[in-house]
C-alpha cells in the first residue's frame, strides 16, 4: 500500500473527499494538485522542476487540434437536435412499426441509435423521445416500466455510437487515433442495438400485453406517402453520418475537419427542412460553448492533478497495486470494470476519462492489453452511468418530463433490465475481443523465427570472407592481405607522393 510513500494514497484520498464534498470537479482537481504539489516541495517528496511543466501542459491542451473536434461535433448535434429532426423521425417510424407488438419500442430504439450518431447528447435524446413517445406509449397500454426503460436506454446509446464525444476524449487520453477508436466502436454499437431489439422481441412474445400494437386510427394507413415521409427524415441524416465518418475512415479528413464538415451538413439539413433560423443557431452556439468550456476546464484540472501525482510516483503506485491483482490481465479487467461501474455513480464520463484513465492506461500497456479495445470497453461501461438507479442522469431527465402518473419507482425498476443488458455487452467485449478488433486494420503476421539477415561476404571468390586489399600498403610493416602490397588485378597502384610525376615521352 505504501511502497512508494504516503503521499500518493493521501493525494488520491484528498481528491475523493473534495469531490464528495460537492466542489466542482475541475476546481477540486486543481486545488488538490496545487496543494499537494507545494506540500511535496516543502517535505521533499516533490521536485520544484515539475511545476515548470504545468504552463506548457496547459498550453498544449488549448492548442490541441484534436480537441477542436469536440465543439464541432457538439454544434452539429445541437443544430440537428433543435431543427425538429427527432420529432419527424419518431412520429414516422412509430407509425411505420405501429402495427406489430412492440412497434413503438422498436421505433424508439432505432431512432435513438440514429440520434445518438448525429447529436451525441444523452439529455437531448432522452428528453425528446420522452416528450414525444412516452405519452403515446402510456395511452395505448404500454407497461410504464418498459416504456420508461426503453426511452432511457435508447438515449444512452449515444455514448458508444460514432461520432461520439466520449470516443474522441478516450482517443486523446490513450494516445490513439480517433478513426481507429470509431472503427473499434462499430461492432459494440451494433451489438447493443441488436440486444435491445431482441429484448423487445422476447417481451412481445412472452408478455404481449406489455407492448401492444397501435390501433389503426393511431398509426394511420401504411402507404407510400408514409414510407416516403420516413425516408425523407431518415435518409439525409444517414447520408450525413456516412459522409462525416467516411471521410474520417478513408483518411480524407482529420477528426476536426470531419466535425467542421458535419456542421456544414447539419446546417444544410436544417435549411432543407426550412428550420434554420438565427435563434436556432444562437441556442446551438450557447450549448456548444457550455459543453466545450466544461471539458477544457476539467482537462486543465486533471492535468494539474496528474502532473503532481506522477511526480510523486503515483503512477508507479497505481501500477504496482493493479498489476498485482490475482488473475493477470483478466483479473485487472474485471476489477477495473467493477471500479468504473461504481465510480460512475458519482462522476460523469468526462471526469472518469480525464482522471482515472491516465492512471489505468500504463497498467493496461504493461499487461499487453490493446488500448483501442480497452478504450471501447471502458466507453461501454461508462455509459451505464446514465442508467444507475437512483443516480443515473438519464433517469433524472426522464423524471423531469414524465407525467405524474408515472411513479419514480417505475422509472428506477424499469431501468434495471436495460442496465443488465449493457453489462452483458461489457462481458461480451471482454470475452470476445474480436467484436472490437474485427473492424481495425490488422498488420501482417510475421514469424520472427523465419527472419534471416544475410550479409554478403568480402574478398575473393574462394569464400574465405577476407577483407580485400584495395592496393593499400601494409600497415605497421605487416604483410598485406592476399600477397602484400601488390595492387589488386586491374587496379592501379598507389602513387608515390615523394617522387616527381613521371611523364611518358
What does this structure look like?
- The chain has 505 residues and is mostly helical.
- It has a domain at 66-301 and 373-437.
- Helix content is 66%, strand content 0%.
- The chain has 22 helices and no strands.
- Helix 3 (53-62) runs antiparallel to helix 14 (278-311) and helix 5 runs parallel beside helix 7 (122-139).
- It is globular.
- The protein starts with 6 loop residues before the first helix and ends in a 68-residue tail after the last helix.
What is the number of E strands?
0
Q: What about the largest sheet? A: none
Q: Point out poorly predicted stretches.
A: 480-485
The chain-level structural class is mainly alpha
Query: Mean pLDDT, as a whole number?
Result: 77
Into which percentage range does the β-strand content fall? under 5%
- The helix/strand series, from N terminus to C terminus, equals HHHHHHHHHHHHHHHHHHHHHH
Overall geometry: globular
Task: Return Rg in Å.
Answer: 32 Å
Q: What is the terminal separation in angstroms?
A: 94 Å
| Percent in helix | 55-70%
Number of helices: 22
Question: What's a concise summary of this model?
Answer:
This protein is an all-alpha fold and 505 residues long. It has 22 helices and no strands.
